[in-house]
């Protein structure tokens, strides 16, 4: 199975900060990667698909990049509602695999 | 509106079986593949299984292969996950999700404990 290594596992930041989260795949996955936001007690929400395509309705401060094995999620200017846990997911082949998650906390 | 509602969770003893369900509405269920994803308490997300729209293909995580079976009844707009030989490490909230990842249920908690 493809391993997705996500970093950092936790991140403290302030409103207005720019933050970057990375995912590295154990083998090339083209651009078959999505980014998800999850808040406590809620189901995940799709933010980015195909590595860099912004899902409709998601604020433009979220962006994704990468291809092959290295991917990033960037939030350009953190808002209070962005404090949550973020996951990457490869859907290149089965079994699909998530990264371990990044908990974004208020500094 | 698109809605997915899981049910059937509960407490089950190790080694026993349980089936959870996901009732779909607001879209043409038979046109979409469906996933199960789980999340152990305080832990990250784990993809569990997928079934194609016409049931012709199923795929599983290595951790559940041979113990879990994903199925669907398109006449009832319902997705199932039959879980056999349950282990403590299967304790989790189980979410169903539509292919494309834009629709998720609220989750149902399965606790495996004696």
Order of helices and strands of chain A: EEEEEEEEEEE
What global shape of chain B is seen? globular
Structural class of chain A: mainly beta
Rg on CA atoms of chain A, Å: 13 Å
- Would you identify the regions of chain B where 5 or more consecutive residues have pLDDT less than 50? none
Using a beta-carbon cutoff below 8 angstroms, give the protein chain pair with the largest interface and the number of residues from each chain.
A-B, 19 and 19 residues
> Which percent range fits the helix content of chain A?
under 10%
**Tally the helices of chain A: what do you get?**
0
Please outline the major beta sheet of chain A: 7 strands, mixed
Which percent range describes the beta-strand content of chain A? over 45%
- Average pLDDT of chain A, rounded to a whole number, is 97
Q: What form of chain A results from the Cα inertia axes?
A: globular
> Structural class of the secondary structure composition of chain B?
mainly beta
Structure summary, number of beta strands of chain A: 11
List keywords for this structure.
heterodimer, A: 107 residues, mainly beta, 7-stranded mixed sheet, 4-stranded antiparallel sheet, 50% strand, B: 114 residues, 6-stranded mixed sheet, 0% helix
Describe the structure.
Chain A has 107 residues and is mostly beta strands. Helix content of chain A is 0%, strand content 50%. Chain A has no helices and 11 strands. In chain A, strands 2, 4, 5, 6, 9, 10 and 11 form a 7-stranded mixed β-sheet that branches. In chain A, strands 1-3-8-7 form a 4-stranded antiparallel β-sheet, with no helix packed on it. Chain B has 114 residues and is mostly beta strands. In chain B, the strands form 2 sheets. Chain B has a 6-stranded mixed β-sheet, with no helix packed on it. Chain B is globular and about 40 Å long. The chains are: A mainly beta (107), B mainly beta (114). The interface between A and B is medium-sized, with 19 and 19 residues.
